[in-house]
Amino acid sequence: MQRTDIARALLAAARTAALPEELVRPPVPVRPARLPNPNGCRWCGLDAYGHMTEWKPPIGWHRWEPPTSAQRKARMLARRARRTAY
Hints:
By secondary structure, this protein is mainly alpha-helical. The protein folds into 2 domains: 1-30, no CATH class; 31-86, no CATH class. It contains 3 helices and 2 strands, in the order ααββα. The protein has helices spanning 3-17, 21-24, 69-85, and strands spanning 54-56, 60-62. The protein has a two-stranded antiparallel sheet. A hairpin with a 3-residue loop joins strand 1 and strand 2 (60-62). The radius of gyration is 22 Å and the shape is elongated. The two termini are 26 Å apart.
């Protein structure tokens, strides 16, 4: 059985059982949030190449600035944690 067939069967069962479709609809895969590059901008996380001038709430308009050592380490650890989580 394909996923579409399973979804149709679940929806049909929900209609006969008088369940709301939200309870039986298969979950939609969610793409994980993008983690910034460890060497990305200090303020927004974008790479130096193509950064131009960006606007972010804490700093406003800014040019690319290198991240602090603590930011680099935290970004690398977050990427490693995501890799090992799957």
